[in-house]
Fold:
Amino acid sequence: MLKIDNLQVSVADKPILKGLSLDVPAGEVHAVMGPNGAGKSTLGYTLAGRNGYEVTAGTASLNGEDLLALEPNERAAKGLFLSFQYPLEIPGVPALTFVRTALNAQRKARGEGEVSAPEFLKLVKQKAKELRIDFDMLKRPLNVGFSGGEKKRMEVLQMALLEPKLLILDETDSGLDIDALRIVSEGVNALRAPDRSMLVITHYQRLLDYIRPDKVHVLAAGRIVASGGPELALELERTGYDRYAAEAA
Amino acid sequence: MNAPVRLDLRDASTFPTRRVEDWKWSDLKRFLREAPAVSPAIVVAPGGPFAALGGQEIAFGNGLTVDAASEARFEGAGVLRLRFVSDAQSTGHQASATVVVPAGAELLVLESYEGAGSAYASNVGLTFEVGEGARLTRVVLLEEPEDVISVSVADVTVAPHARYEHTVLASGAKLQRHETRVNHPGHGASVRLDGLYVLAGSRHADLTTVVDHQGVGGVTSQLTKGVVADSARGVFQGRIVVDRGADQTDARMGHHALILSDKAEIDAKPELEIYADDVSCAHGNTIGALDENALFYARARGVPEHEARVMLTQAFLGEVTDRIEHEGAREAAQAWLAERLEALL
Structure:
């Protein structure tokens, strides 16, 4: 599904990712853990195609297709979804309008027909109910004045509607209390499927109690320095990142 | 406060220069040194951009009505389409109109400046009188060629318990000035002064307003937004005066604009002159670029860049058109905005 090979990325001419390689097969959930400044968010932004994240070497592909050659919206249409650590407020654009615009833009890019308004509404109502999102909230401008938990639930709602092939969750647990974390995690877990992969980027092990990974990778100083099963996350929780940071340096 | 300039195209000594404070960003004299020759008479077909909204029509063609008068007067209710149609080459014309809304009546004025030809100068003087308890909604559409001069100045007198609301939609010209001066009586009267400018090329638009609160308990709400691209120039001048004794005045002014290019320019002068003690007045002014983070967010969800820019810019500017209560007029304004942005971005 996702193949990253020797990825090197600079931000404002400063190297952040220094030869990162990662392989996430279809249907698997991989966690990328690491200390602050290791390059975790850079990985997410680079894969999504944000300006200012300059790829200086290496490759990244989604189902064999070169991701790095595509515009951000083209990557989304190919099935990549980055869930933001801090979802943006979009003043003046109701959440419903935003999601429907995104969904139809993706469908158009794939040569599929638009989803009709009644069809879309039915779908949204059902998903919103599962995520315990008040439908009236969807008529408000996206994320404007929403709490941290509400913003993350809106992210999960968008995932559920856009049905991506690869989900990248960037610090999805930040700013969430236990109840919100549970609702968001249940929403993400409901999306696990044999043809869908997930990359869970997190600093803390806590999220992985809720979204259980198949594999855990340690990212330190721009490289994957260790990989293992879920037990690696528990070990990190006990021992911290110091050992890996020292090794990488 | 300076006495307002009373422009007369026949008399070059009335042409303001940038040394006149209120005209410093709209230097008319720079573009027009002498009185232009008088524009020829033209025939104007009924209709115009607001034709679908019906109502009565008063149309000027190069400054003259169908009866060859340079002045018109309207008194009544309902819908009035007030059209100033120009089709001239390097000549000038001016017209004036008075609109009276009787006490308790409701009138929608759809005021359009429709230009063809090139390098003409147009000057319009308007007088609005809004009677006690009456309501006047004025939606103004300025659509003129890039190389013309167009000035319109309105004096508005509002009676107690009346409502005056306007929304100016400007697409600019070589020099395009739309000015409104309101005498606000307080005493339950409320005023809304909104504006929107969408400017491309080397166009200039100047939205100027002056509100003078003369009595207690007046409300004024003002929201102007704009976007400028290329080497265009947007000017916003808003002055709210609260006279001595005009207590419990509630006045809010906002001007927020987007600059899309390094060569584009926005000049804004929000002014509050308050001589009363017990008032609630506020103003805000912001000028910036489109939020690149929001743009990336929309693109990362699959929306192509151009579509994302249009969506976010329209959402930003649409706050102004959303404030038009009359459904047909609001939809016409929204359609104009969508069309203008599609061409601009």
About this structure: Chain A has one domain: 2-248. Chain A touches chain B through 31 residues (CB under 8 Å). Chain A has a mean pLDDT of 93.
